[in-house]
Amino acid sequence: MKKVNLNRKAALAIGMSALLVASAVSAQSVEDSADPIQRQSAVTGEQAVPRTEIMPSSEGVSVTEVTYSVYGVPAAPVFPAAPLSPAVPKQALTVAPTAAQKSLLAVTNGKNHTLVLDDEGQLWIWEGKTANKEETGAYNRMLPFHYPGLEHVSAIAGGESHNMALTDDGTLWGWGNSQFGQVGNGSSEQETPVPVLSGVKAVASGAIHTVALKEDGTVWSWGDNTYGQLGIGTTEQAGMPVQVPRLAGVRQVFAQDFSSAAILEDGSLFTWGANNAGQLGEGTMADRSTPTNVLTAVYSAALGSNHMLALMSDGTVQAWGDNSYGQLGDGTTAGRLLPAAVPGLSGISMLAAGNGQSLALTVEGEVWSWGNNNKGQLGLGQVGDQTSPARIEDLQDILYIQANANSSAAIQTNGLLYRWGDLPTSRPGKRKWEAIMEPMPLQTFSVRTAD
User: In what order do the strands lie in the sheet with 367-371?
Assistant: First the structure.
């Protein structure tokens, strides 16, 4: 694996250069037609996505690098000259580990399981039924064990109870619960990984559906389609991959709960799926079964449960959808059907969104949070919702942020991982949840092999 060590100031300059280049790309309106939507841009590449749930342990090896990928909360990378994909690539920004440290690239967690990717392309898993019971006997483990059967993995994504893994050769593998076809091989339950699609460069998972970006810039989807989240013009479930019509030249894909989104190479943002709170940003509360263009000049985005954030090419932020907890950051709790600027935010390099909470990372390495704070997930030292962005005072020199359902996380320039919100404190065989009001550093990750 290639290790990348960047000077802080140089990395910041690279990130801002990417934003400035993106802002120079002219926006073009998209008319409804049968022709594919395909445009070129100076900004190309893939985007890294975060995800949470690393088990603390009194014994284990130190974690110095963690790039997250979790279902429902994709976010942009901080410093790449071009966006990376929600399927975390192995060339992601890392800090070189010492011989005693376990080097991790990605973490994805579902409702009852956590999957980890290390820098050797191997998978580790604990909890839940998405493990291979026949080969490992590993239902409901509280500590990570090596997951057999898949090697040379470059990216992972997890749904509520299914997993996807992308290998170096572009093959996408899936396993787990597939009651709604979310694994993509036509079965209802898949305990061992099976190949689902080839030529893939990125993958994102909603609760019970999956979206994949192929190397040719086309988008494919499968699984539950109750709200049109597959983007195929119907609400019929798909047990195997189907191409999303009229989308081409795509560089990023996103999925959260029952909504999906994609950003084209020219920065145009398209959304589709559930729209019960106006989270698609197209001016109504009607679900959409086909992609709709809602913004241009977008650098990256973050999907929350019922709201959405967009990082614009000039470093500002737009927000829309549900605002019950103040997650739109405009000082009110009134929802919005169309994108509008979040007041007071500029120089932003990355966004994250969860179940009613929003986070923004500045180019100076500071973190701001707002919205739902019933479990301390804003990291402000107390509970109570926040309708305007507030700085998390205890966090400095941050490279990466992530938001989960009721918790949040950040990675510092030195590789130290911080978490806060509703977090598990566990021992083998038991698990207890505790509200952590301020960022808590976690440096250990216990590794066990399968019995």
Answer: 348-353, 357-362, 367-371, 386-391
Is the pLDDT at 311 greater than 50, yes or no? Answer: yes
Q: How far apart are CA 32 and CA 444, in angstroms?
A: 52
Q: How many CB atoms lie within 10 A of CB 133?
A: 12
Q: Is the pLDDT of residue 103 over 80?
A: no
> Cβ-count burial of 188 within 10 angstroms (0-12 exposed, 13-18 middle, 19+ buried)?
exposed
Q: Is the pLDDT of residue 74 over 50?
A: no
Mean pLDDT of the chain: 75
Number of domains observed in the structure of the chain: 2
**Which pLDDT tens digit goes with each residue over 345-364?**
999 999 988 899 999 999 99
pLDDT at site 117: 73
CB atoms near residue 440 (< 10 Å):
16
Query: Which pLDDT score is estimated for 425?
Result: 62
Burial of 289 (0-12, 13-18, 19+ CB in 10 A): middle
Q: Give a yes or no: residue 433 inside a domain.
A: yes
Question: Do 217 and 275 fall within a single domain?
Answer: yes
| Alpha-carbon dihedral sign for residues 216, 218, 223, 229 | positive
Tokens of 2: 């290639």
Q: Domain range spanning residue 201?
A: 101-296
Q: How far apart are CA 313 and CA 163, in angstroms?
A: 32
362 plus 435 within the same structural domain: yes
**Residue 393 pairs with which residues in a beta bridge?**
none
Answer with the one of 296, 331, 349 that is the final residue of a domain. Answer: 296
Q: Is there a contact between 298 and 262 (Cβ–Cβ < 8 Å)? A: no
On whether the pTM is more than 0.90, the answer is: no
Angstrom distance (rounded) from CA 359 to CA 373: 12
Cβ pair 37, 247 in contact under 8 A: yes
Which contacts (CB < 8 Å, 24+ apart) does range 185-191 have? Answer: 185/239, 185/240, 186/239, 186/240, 187/239, 191/132, 191/133, 191/134
Residue 92 pLDDT more than 90?
Answer: no
